[in-house]
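Team,

Forwarding the record for the chain on the shared tracking sheet. I've put the sequence and predicted structure together so nobody has to dig through attachments.
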Amino acid sequence: MIRYFQEIFSGLWSLLVGMRLTARMAVAPTITTHYPFDTLEITPNFRGHIDLVINPKTARDKCIVCMMCQRACPSGCISLKGEKPEGAKKKVLTEYHLDFTKCSLCGNCVETCPVNALEYSRDYQLAGFSRHEFHFDLVDRFRQRAREQGLDPKVGDLTPPPPKPPKPAATETAPDASGSTDG
């Protein structure tokens, strides 16, 4: 019989401790963020998928189409193509595709780029209904981001550079105005 009352007392005591804790937490300020309405600041070291860097002065990408990022990718999720326009010295980036379903976010592509043409994006709200929504065309994304910044994007621009003006022909020395010749 004593054991019966000990169990009842123990159960009531446990109920009161739990109710006290619940009451204390009910009046405490909330810690969580109410996601769709409030968002947190993204930390500076956040690694999203990669994006091409926009040069704000020229509105061009910095990519020299060296394929180092494609070779450094352990997942094989990067493919790019470039063409050399007629009369140009360097290749121009025409296609840059990222299959984000394969990307492991290792950062090898960003680290191996010799001209720092790649950066991590700040996108963290990536959701989709099919895997095809995660195949990014970075050239199109570059154009959209440049237009949002008020720039006229020049990525994949295969128009030949303007011709250089011809050099002036070497002129012969004319006799002096007096008409006299030495000799």
